[in-house]
Amino acid sequence: MTSFDLVVRSRRTVTPEGERAAAVAVRDEKIVALYDYAKPLDAPEDVDLRDVALLPGLVDTHVHVNEPGRTHWEGFDSATRAAAAGGVTTIVDMPLNSLPPTIDEPALDAKLRAAGGRCHVDVGFWGGAVPGNVKDLAPLHRRGVYGFKCFLSPSGVEEFPHLTVAELRLVLEEVAGFGGLTVVHAEDPALLAEPGGPGYREFLDSRPGASERSAVEQVVRVAEECGARVHILHVSSADCLEVLEAARARGVAVSAETCPHYLTLTAEQVPEGGTTYKCCPPIRSEANRDLLWDGLARGVLSCVVSDHSPSTADLKVPDFAAAWGGIASLQIGLPAIWTEAARRGHGLGDVVRWMSANPAALAGMPGKGGIKVGNDADLVAFDPAADLLVDAARLHHKNPVTPYHGRTLKGAVLTTWLRGRPVDGEPHGRLLMGARR
């Protein structure tokens, strides 16, 4: 009998071909075979989950770890602990909110030093595109960053300035030249305003859906002219869907994501002074949320990722004009999405596609994103029927700040395996530099 390092069995194993009863066999960190659920197999550890679902590890391509420089906001240890507890086995770190931002090779080296030996899941990195650093993009690409993040409106931190449309064109021409990917925070600064007061309504009115649509139109136009591949980050406004769908029909290489908070929270739910809900672009109406779900179901939006953007509690002052904008949800994105997806008639296979397979494909991560032979044995035992009461103080996020505090969600992560090894508190995540080369 062939011997394996690990076998995990589940009557609800979610594979790229669908949900089935299966035994997943692991050897040398890889999935080497899928067998019938009850087949006797030789392994020192044989885990039978019965009716608990077995999912591939999630891939979150939009995480602000903030280390080095703002490590009191978050850090590689705390962020990757939270990721593993939430069923996320691979993250890609955003280039801003750390000091220095990842906009050249010395900054990347500082990031790698900060991350080394501290990661509980696998970690890749985005580079940043800011005014004046076009010459740094190809070297960063050769070092193995997964693409380049830029803003069309102010980022909120002075060390990461936004691009004009003319500067965006220079970036897209350069990145297209070496076959890279540019990911864009798309809000048109000409349509943004200072909030007229401290409340959520004033904040929401200051960042209308039209600002997102206008920026997406500009990105699509320039990408089409340059022959560039682009990805629109954290779409919050359904006004963007028509533009994206039309562009893709014309053959423009544009994709887009949204986030758990846009799919599970609504403007109507935001309490007075509840700045844990503040993010940019903002959480919009319930009717808008329904349209985002429709866009996700139709494939106009392909990925659901956290945009985990934490801060210390003191920055969430009860004034929406002054509070830091960012939502921490890395650990609870899966149950949040499953709660709403199940209510709307979607299955675990849909959630896995949005939160694992498609983000892995976006970044270009071979071996990630699915339970199939040859992939890394990144696995998650997920009980879809469990109730989860969110207590911010019990999360692994460094600061107990989340709009989900006190909510009861459906679904709980029981065990996470990274390349066939349970994530157990010892940091054995890898830095994925050059993984797609």
Automatic annotation (TrEMBL):
Tell me which UniProt keywords the record has, alphabetically.
Answer: Hydrolase, Metal-binding, Zinc
UniProt xrefs under InterPro entries: Allantoinase (IPR017593), Amidohydro-rel (IPR006680), DHOase/Allantoinase_Hydrolase (IPR050138), Metal-dep_hydrolase_composite (IPR011059), Metal_Hydrolase (IPR032466)
Q: Which EC number(s) does the record attach to this protein?
A: 3.5.2.5
Report the residue ranges that make up the Amidohydrolase-related domain in this protein.
54-423
Which EC class is the enzyme in? hydrolase
Q: Pfam families, from UniProt?
A: Amidohydro_1
Pathway linked to the protein? Nitrogen metabolism; (S)-allantoin degradation; allantoate from (S)-allantoin: step 1/1
Q: Which cofactor does it need?
A: Zn(2+)
Query: What does the similarity note say?
Result: Belongs to the metallo-dependent hydrolases superfamily. Allantoinase family.
Assembly, in brief, is:
Homotetramer.
Question: Which NCBIfam families does the protein's record reference?
Answer: allantoinase (TIGR03178)
Name listed for the protein in its UniProt record? allantoinase
Q: Which organism is it from?
A: Nonomuraea maheshkhaliensis
